[in-house]
Amino acid sequence: MDESIYKQAKKALDVSNENLLDFMDALPQMAWAAQPNGKVIYFNKAWHMYTGKAPGTTDGWITTVHPEESSQVIEAWKSALQKGDYHIECRIRNGADGSYKWFLEQGMPIRDENGKVIMWFGTYTDINNEKQDLEPL
């Protein structure tokens, strides 16, 4: 392959990746990306701001989930990796004050032309007000 074509393709891929990260950081929701095996490799700025975790870190994300839901989240994620469907309601800790809010976490796999998962993308949607409206008085 001509080296200049390779450089052009690499540059285009780099720009595409930067655009994707810019898009995810612009979302009002907390968002994430994971490898096909389930390892989270990216959280957007909204997630880092809410959880107080250092930008760029992905390890230890389960510690942000309320202890009462953490095992359910892990089991739902394991199941999703087999079945391809991920959604769960859980409380996530705010890093600034230690309080918890309810979120609907959803993830979808991106598949290649053969149906093989190549990446996961997901979001956390704030449902705290809705959950509080359902609580008995």
Automatic annotation (TrEMBL):
Catalytic activity: ATP + protein L-histidine = ADP + protein N-phospho-L-histidine
A Pfam family the protein falls into: PAS_3
The keyword Calcium is annotated on this UniProt entry: no
Signal peptide interval: none
Sorted UniProt keywords: Kinase, Phosphoprotein, Transferase
Domain of life: Bacteria
Catalytic activity, EC: 2.7.13.3
Top-level class of the enzyme under EC nomenclature: transferase
Stretches assigned to the PAC domain: 86-137
Protein name: histidine kinase
